[in-house]
Design brief:
β2 and β3 (41-43) form a beta hairpin. The chain has helices at residues 49-52, 65-81, 113-121, 133-143, 161-171, 185-191, 207-215, 250-262, 267-293, 305-314, 365-371, 373-377, and strands at residues 2-12, 27-35, 41-43, 87-90, 106-109, 126-127, 146-152, 172-183, 203-204, 219-227, 233-240, 298-301, 323-326, 342-345, 356-359, 381-384, 390-391. The protein has 392 residues and is α/β, with parallel strands linked by helices. α4 (133-143) packs parallel to α5. The protein has a seven-stranded mixed beta sheet with strand order 6-5-4-7-8-11-10. A six-stranded mixed beta sheet has the order 14-13-12-15-16-17, covered by helices on one side. The two termini are 41 Å apart. Bound molecules: thymidine-5'-phosphate (TMP).
C-alpha cells in the first residue's frame, strides 16, 4: 500500500529553463509516497518522458570535475574488474562515461537528441531512443548479448520499471553484470535534502527497495558502493541469480542493515522526515529574510534542478535571491523554472558584487568552496540548507 508523507507543493518541470519568464509556466503537484510492501519511495504525478526529456535537455554530466573524475575512475574499475566485451549505457548523456572507453566496445542510449548528438559526432554508437523493450530487441539482434549494462541517475527517471528490467533481462548475457547508480534515500533522509525530489525523480532508491524490486526479475545485488556524488549515491552491482560464480560481498547486508537501523523500512521515519522538511523551509527563509533586511545581496550558485524544488517549495523570489550563476551553456540567460530569477553566465569577478551565495549545487560544495577560496577570504559567505539551513 502506498502511503502519502510529503507535499512539496506545485512545481514546474525542474529542467525547463525558459528564455522568457512566464508567470503561468505549467506546474504539477509534487507529492511523495512510501510503499509499505516494496519499501519504494516515489512521487505520484507521472509526467510523460517525451515532455521532460526532449531535444533541449539542459543537464550535462560533464560539467564538473567531480563527475568527470567519478566516471573516469569507474571506467578504470570496470575495465579491471569486469573487462567487458561490450558495455551498454542507459542514459549516456554527453558521454561522460563512455568516452573513457574504446568506441568499438561501447553503446550509448540517450533519448535527448541534443546530448546523443555529442557522442554520435565523436563516432560513438549512440541510440537516441528511450530505453524500452523495442530498443532492447533491436540491440540484441545487432549485438547478440551485452556483458555489462551501466546506468547512472536514469532508472529513477523512468516510470515503468517493469519495462526497464524486462528489457535489461532481454539483452544481458547469462554471466552479464548490471551496474546502477542513483541518489541514496538514506543519505537524503539523513541530510534532509528534500530537493532530491523533483518531477523527474520518480523514485528514490534504497538498497532495501532495489533488492525487493530485483527479485521479480531473478536478479540480485552482489556488491554496493557508497559514493559522495549527487549528495550521496549508491552504486549497485547486480548479477543474475543463476550466476553462482560471483560471491556476494559483505557490503550488501551491511548497507541493508544500516538502512533498517535508520528505519527506512518504516513509515514513521518518513513522517518525521516530512516534519523536518517544513522546519528546514522556515529556517532557510529566516536566514534569507534577515539578510534582505540588512540590505545585503544573495546570488544563487549552481542553477540545479534541486534548487528549483527549493525555490518553488519555499517560495523564494527575486527579492531574496536576485539571480543565479551557472556554467552550463543550456541554462545561461534562461530563468529558474517557476521563478522570475535569471541565470547569469558564471565569471569569477561577478562574485565581488555579492555578500552571500546560496549553494544551489550543494552536492559540489567541496569543489565550489575550493574554487572560490579568494572570494571567501574577502568576505563572501556561502549559505546552504543541507543538512540544515546555515551560513557556512
Ligand atoms: P547537479 O547538481 O544537478 O549535478 O547540477 C550542478 C549544476 O551546477 C550544473 O548546472 C553545473 C553547475 N555548476 C556550476 O555552475 N559551477 C561549478 O563549479 C559546479 C561544480 C557546478
Amino acid at each position: 500500500m502506498k502511503k502519502f508523507f510529503l507535499d512539496l507543493g506545485l512545481q514546474p518541470l525542474a529542467n525547463k529553463y525558459l528564455k522568457e519568464f512566464k508567470s503561468n509556466q505549467i506546474k504539477y503537484k509534487l507529492k511523495i509516497y512510501f510503499d509499505t510492501k516494496s519499501k519504494l519511495v516515489s512521487i505520484s504525478k507521472r509526467i510523460p518522458s517525451k515532455i521532460m526529456f526532449d531535444a533541449k535537455y539542459p543537464y550535462r554530466s560533464s560539467m564538473s570535475n567531480t563527475m568527470r573524475k567519478s566516471f573516469k575512475d569507474l571506467a578504470s574499475e570496470i575495465k579491471k574488474r569486469f573487462n567487458p566485451r561490450i558495455l551498454l549505457e542507459i542514459g549516456s548523456n554527453d558521454g561522460a562515461l563512455i568516452l573513457n572507453f574504446n568506441k568499438n566496445n561501447v553503446i550509448g542510449v540517450e533519448p535527448c537528441k541534443n546530448l546523443a548528438k555529442i557522442t554520435k559526432k565523436k563516432n560513438y554508437k549512440t541510440y537516441d531512443n528511450y530505453w524500452n523493450f523495442e530498443l532492447s530487441k533491436k540491440i540484441k539482434k545487432k549485438f547478440k548479448s551485452i556483458d555489462l549494462i551501466y546506468s547512472a541517475n536514469t532508472l529513477t527517471h523512468i516510470s515503468d520499471l517493469n519495462n526497464v528490467f524486462k528489457s535489461i533481462n532481454h539483452v544481458l548475457s547469462k554471466k552479464g553484470i548490471l551496474i546502477i547508480e542513483d541518489p541514496s534515500l538514506l543519505e537524503c533522509i539523513k541530510k534532509n535534502s528534500y530537493d532530491q525530489f523533483y518531477n523527474e525523480h520518480i523514485y528514490l532508491f534504497s538498497a532495501i527497495s532495489v533488492k525487493n524490486l530485483l527479485k521479480n526479475y531473478n536478479l540480485e545485488i552482489f556488491d554496493i558502493k557508497n559514493l559522495s556524488t549527487h549528495g550521496g549515491s549508491l552504486r549497485y552491482y547486480i548479477k543474475r541469480k543463476s550466476n553462482k560464480l560471483i560471491k556476494k560481498t559483505r557490503q550488501v547486508n551491511k548497507q541493508i542493515h544500516k538502512e533498517k537501523q535508520y528505519g527506512l523500512n518504516k513509515f514513521e521515519t518518513y513522517k518525521k522526515f516530512s516534519k523536518n522538511v517544513f522546519k528546514s523551509k522556515n529556517n532557510l527563509l529566516k536566514i534569507l529574510n534577515k539578510i534582505k533586511k540588512e540590505r545585503k545581496k544573495i546570488i544563487g550558485y549552481g542553477a540545479t534542478a534541486k534548487a528549483v524544488t527549493i525555490l518553488n517549495f519555499c517560495n523564494i523570489n527575486k527579492d531574496l535571491i536576485s539571480s543565479f550563476i551557472d556554467i552550463t551553456p543550456e541554462k545561461i540567460n534562461h530563468y529558474m523554472p517557476g521563478k522570475n530569477i535569471k541565470i547569469l553566465k558564471y565569471n569569477k569577478s561577478m562574485l565581488k558584487n555579492y555578500h552571500y551565495a546560496f549553494l544551489g549545487a550543494w552536492n559540489f560544495k567541496k569543489e565550489i568552496l575550493n574554487k572560490e577560496k579568494k572570494h571567501i577570504k574577502k568576505g563572501l559567505r556561502f549559505i546552504t540548507h543541507v543538512p540544515q539551513p546555515q551560513i557556512l
